[in-house]
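If your schedule permits, I should be very grateful for your opinion on a structural question. What I wish to show you is a protein chain and, alongside it, a tokenised description of its three-dimensional fold. Would you kindly read the sequence against the tokens and tell me how you understand this chain to fold? Here, with my thanks, is the record as I have it:

===
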Amino acid sequence: MSRGSRDLLTIFGQTAIALSLVASTNSFVHAQAPAASTTPALEGLELETCLSMAMDQQATIRAARATLATGLAKIEALERSGQIGALLSSDLKVRRQQASLGVQAARQGIRKAENETRQAVTFTYLTSVYAAEQKKELQAMATNLKQLKEAASRLAEKYPGQLELVEIANHATASKAPEAEQGFEQAIAALREAIGTCEKVVPSHDKLPKASCSLTSREEAIALAVANRPEISQADLGAHIFGLEIEAQCRMRFSTAGRTLASGSDLHSMILPSGQYDEKYQPGPIAPEMPPLIPGNRKDRVAQAEHLAGRARVLREKVQALIELESGNAWLRYKQNFDKLPILEKAIAVAVKRSKELRDDLGGDNKISPRDVLEAGLIETTLKQQAIEARLAAIQALATLERATGGGYTLELDWKVAAPRAN
């Protein structure tokens, strides 16, 4: 039996990957990704390098820092008003307190932006690595198909129809090459956006790493999230700020339309509920609410401020509920995919052994046909690909968990031992 014939299993397995699993998608790779840069690529970047770049360049983080700078400038302006300002504005003391709390909330907003950027960069980096791995497999498969065609030609009389099968696979594979290339470019473009750079970046890895999680339960993940998420701190500060509005309205004794903290602040930039990333159930947050003016006499205005302050407390409850849901679900997604790996590895070992036995008997006295080898190879390759995808899903869930816990859990990746490639 020729070497080309004995490689039939490998070729068919790679064909299965090329036809069904090369195009990778996730929530961070969009059809509207920016066009590839014409500037030279930053080759061989480690994940930590990309994360460091993003902390300096990502627009979301820079915008959060600008919000903080605005809050600090507002405090300075209120302080400069001095005693005269206090005489002209009976609520000035309360506004200074609210501005100070707003600065604290803005600092938490920077933490939130950094957490989300870290997840986005990690997600897109891993997707780029996965896409590079699949692209490489497709290229290797195209080369091997040429050898297989020669072997199938020699075995055409003994196994009718196999040459046609190889030719079909060859054409199907060629049609997938542009899709694989574009999938890789989209992943790189998404990584560029997550970093916030105009330069094309290329990861240093082309195989997925291994990862494990020190958190042993969903409850532990939730506890870390509640203790560390900046959104909860923001919501607490927001409830306090809105509570001070009651005192501010009480101080304005003779006004028939009292101005509120919203007359000089953007509440939605100061107090942001948790973002949503769950794949299935996505409950919406409650936005803060405060009109620029509250009408009525002092008693009526105070009553309205009390209702608005009560709404802010409900907002805080909703934020925590969303965070508990998100962090718990992230841990469950990790556990679900991580627990698949040892089961798949056992199945792969059996499939590899079976494929080798059939490959050795191909064309021999046991009447093993190429179809037998092809079917066994498809099972082996499918199992290997499922293992790679489970590893990717588990790591991405851990990236979500890192953000969902506010950094209470830190993602650690072992790039030395890469995920197995389909052969």
